[in-house]
């Protein structure tokens, strides 16, 4: 990473870490933040499973095994955030409710400014698990996992440690952070199995640059919209109530 990119990265990471940590600390925005993480983590599972199956078909058993573990980890991460939400008496809206919500929104608002900027130049078709270039997957995911591990560790510290519930959540988020570090490590190893260290440096620098641009796009969008995103959660109905109404 060159000096200028390094400075931008520090500023950008600081800004996103600040936004995420303050959203998690604020009881008003905590449910939606947890819901966002739940959806992002569980949303990665089918993609990783398909990639694992593809690696196996292509004869890369080492990678297939790593991807299978990775998919199981992300599933667990989704469950951790779902549990955190449940403790707040909330749950993620159903797929049907989300779909309805999406349809009522303008199309432009549908894609995340972060992802659009990060994967710019790649169309949706080429990013599917069946088609994605292995090196694009490895390098782009390596950067995201590496940064996620640091972001989750920072965010866990933003939760008030004196409340037992949020202390539990804090510990769970720390365990998520450790898993993300492990994911980054195997993805780096996966690149080492295919590339020279000079080539790795180049591809990692390219995705680092994309991440910086994407971070600023996200921060800009947050400032523009005042951080108001649509609600992803609804109140969860206690089991006893469900039995009464069923
Ligand atoms: Fe994760
Ligand atoms: Fe991960």
What does this structure look like?
The chain is mainly α and 246 residues long. It has one domain: Heme Oxygenase, Chain A (Up-down Bundle). It is 75% helix and 2% strand. It is built from nine helices and two strands. The protein has helices at 3-25, 30-57, 61-87, 95-104, 113-118, 134-158, 164-192, 197-225, 239-245, and strands spanning 90-92, 233-235. The protein has a two-stranded antiparallel ribbon with strand order 1-2. The longest helix is centred in the last third of the chain and has 29 residues, at 164-192. The N and C termini lie far apart (59 Å). The structure holds fe (ii) ion (2 copies). The site of one fe (ii) ion (FE2) has 5 residues, from helix 3 and helix 7.
Summarize the structure.
By secondary structure, this protein is an all-alpha fold. It has nine helices and two strands, in the order αααβαααααβα.
Number of domains: 1
Element order: H for helix, E for strand: HHHEHHHHHEH
**What is the name of the CATH topology?**
Heme Oxygenase, Chain A
Return Rg in Å: 19 Å
Give the low-pLDDT segments.
none
In round numbers, the mean pLDDT is: 88
Please tally the β strands and state the result.
2
- Summarize the biggest pleated sheet: 2 strands, antiparallel
